[in-house]
């Protein structure tokens, strides 16, 4: 517990800090730095990996298609299988539009997820899902590019699990980031979101936000 004196002291400190900030702001002519928002951050970029058929691939191999990029590992007990199931359902819901998008499942566990392991996993859900692996350095590089977090957890004689960010990234055919898709979004809404972006990309003039 904090005594009353500590609370008063904390309050005075906060006041002093506030006054300090005000003093600093009033003395500097420079505008405050632009706030860091999701929109000002970049997601994605060049990568070099190996797909589940053993083929060396780069981001350029998927240009011309929308991509849905997400990260996980084949031994994931819950989140990854659910996500893959949802994506399989999204692909069904998209119907013919499914041909315009490649779901890319990037492993965060390259030690165990070889191309063969990935091939026996992703294709169970939907043959259009691409599994990607690589060297630990290549995986670290793409994880940095997409700003996702992963780390080995609960290492024991029985094996280990990986912690990882479960958000999905919808990327445009030119490789630019369009939007994040939270892992708990229902498949029907994911399909709607993807369709909306496909429609927007067909009519860029109506999507510029400028009225003529
Ligand atoms: Ni997972």
Give a structural overview.
Helices cover 36% and strands 22% of the residues. The protein contains five helices and nine strands. Helix 2 packs across helix 5. The chain is of the alpha+beta class. It has helices spanning 4-27, 79-94, 115-125, 136-145, 187-202; strands spanning 48-51, 56-58, 66-72, 101-107, 130-133, 150-156, 159-164, 168-171, 177-181. Strand 8 (168-171) and strand 9 form a beta hairpin. Residues 21-26 and 206-212 have low confidence and may be disordered. Bound molecules: nickel (II) ion. Residues 72-73, 76, 79-80, 164 line the site of nickel (II) ion (NI).
Can you describe this structure in just a few lines?
This protein has five helices and nine strands; from the N terminus they run H-E-E-E-H-E-H-E-H-E-E-E-E-H. By secondary structure, the chain is of the alpha+beta class. The strands form two sheets. Strands 2-1-5-4-3-8-9 form a seven-stranded mixed beta sheet. It has a two-stranded antiparallel ribbon with strand order 6-7.
Helix content: 25-40%
Structural class: alpha+beta
The number of helices is 5
Q: What distance separates the N and C termini? A: 62 Å
Report strand %: 15-25%
Largest sheet geometry: 7 strands, mixed
Mean pLDDT: 85
What overall form do the CA principal axes indicate?
Answer: globular
Q: Which ligands appear in the coordinates?
A: nickel (II) ion
What's the count of strands? 9
**Pattern of helices and strands:** HEEEHEHEHEEEEH
What Rg is obtained from the alpha carbons, in whole angstroms? 22 Å
In the predicted model, the low-confidence regions spanning at least 5 consecutive residues are 21-26, 206-212
Strands of the biggest beta sheet: in what spatial order?
2-1-5-4-3-8-9
